[in-house]
Structure formats: structure tokens, C-alpha cells
Amino acid sequence: KLTIQAGIDALPAAGGAVHVRGTYTVGGSITTNKPTQILGYGARINLSASTNGFSVDTANGDTATPVVIEGFYIDGQDNATTIGFRIFDCDRVTVRDCFIEDCTTGIQFETSAAAAWCEDHLIENVMIRSGTTGINFLKGASGAVSFGEIKLMKVGISECTTGINLGASVVAYR
Fold first, then answer.
1. 59 φ, ψ to 5°?
2. What secondary structure, in 3-state letters, does 156-174 show?
3. How far is Cα 160 from Cα 133, in angstroms, rounded to an integer?
4. What is 87-128 written as a DSSP string?
5. What angle do CA 13, 149, 12 make, to 5 degrees?
6. Bond preceding residue 12 cis, omega within 30 of 0
7. How far apart, in Å, are the Cα atoms of 94 and each of 47, 56, 67, 77, 81?
8. Is the separation of the CB atoms in 7 and 34 below 8 Å?
9. What is the rounded CA–CA span in Å between residue 58 and residue 118?
10. Nearest partner of 111 among 100, 122, 119, judged by Cα
11. What is the pLDDT of residues 129-138, one digit of tens each?
12. pLDDT in tens, 22-41
């Protein structure tokens, strides 16, 4: 069977949809840097150590908006340093109808520098269970505050050491 990454890579630059079925073991990030819908109702992702399940990353200057990821069960399998969803330097990402279990971090919003914003995201109907941090905000080394509106709707976090980690000084208005 094809990998999820191969399906994403086969999409045109304008983006499109990838429908996923079955169980996948992922040893590296599933990454997109173009407008993409990744629909996996009933699909399971098992992560190996030091892996991001899904990584939406525009650090290379491409636009990755909008990205919608729906219907996945992600199992970090208690491996060290696994992240279910890593949202890096981009806007307008939706994660919906997902269950994230046994990851070090369920969802991580991350910026790399002062000029990068991470905003206009929707996390809806998501359950994060059994990890170190449910949702983590990690800002770039510049020390600048770089997070905008992020909506959490019907999000459950249980059995995590920290539910939501805002880090140092990440709350700001613009």
C-alpha cells in the first residue's frame, strides 16, 4: 500500500484531498506544505520513537493554508519525544475528530522567529490522552510572541502531566 506521505506528495501545488484507510506505522513526520485535506475516518497511525505524526510546516516559505486533518487515531505507543500534530509557522490549520494517545505532546503550536505567526487554527472534537503535555505552545528563540487566534472546541485532555502549556509570555494581542 502507498504511504500517506506519497499521497500528499502526489497532489498538485494547488493542493487537494488524500483519503486514508487502514493502519500505518510512521517512522518520520507526515508533512504538508500546500493546501491539503487529509481525511482518515477509521485510520490509525502508530508512531515510532522521535516522530511527529502530522507536521504542517511553512518554514520553507511555501503557503500551507488551509490544511484540514480529520478522523485519525494517533498512537504514540509510549515512545519518547512523539508529537501527534506539529503546527509550525503557519496559519489556518484545522484538526477535527481525532484521538491522540500516548504521545509525549498531543498538539504542538510552534514558531521559529519574530516574523513568524501561528494563528487562525481550529482544534475541534479532539481527545488527547496519556502523555506529558496535551497542547504545547513553543515560541522561537527570538523571544517574540508569535501566536494569534487558536480556537479549541470540544477538546478533552486527560491523564497528561500538563494539560495546556503556554510557555513563558506567549499571550499577546495585536
1. -60, -20
2. EEEEEEEEEECCCCCCCCC
3. 6
4. EES-B-EEEEEEEEES-SEEEEEE--STT--BB-EEEEEEEE
5. 5
6. no
7. 21, 11, 6, 24, 23
8. no
9. 10
10. 119
11. 999 999 998 8
12. 999 988 888 887 889 999 99
Q: What is the pTM of this model?
A: 0.90
Place of cell 490522552: 129
Backbone angles phi, psi at 134, to 5 degrees: -70, -60
- The residues of the chain scoring below 70 in pLDDT are 1, 58-65, 113-116, 140-146, 168-174
Report the pLDDT value the prediction gives residue 173, as an integer from 0 to 100. Answer: 46
For residue 16, give the C-alpha cell. 487537494
> Which distant-in-sequence residues (6+ apart) come within 8 Å of 108 by Cβ?
83, 85, 86, 87, 135, 136, 137, 138
Q: Which of 1, 71, 6, 70 is nearest to 32 (CA)?
A: 6
Q: Which three cell numbers stand for residue 27?
A: 517512522
Grid coordinates representing 10 are 502526489
Among 97, 70, 82, 75, residue whose Cα is nearest residue 29: 82
Helices (H) and strands (E) counted in the chain, each on its own, are: 1, 11
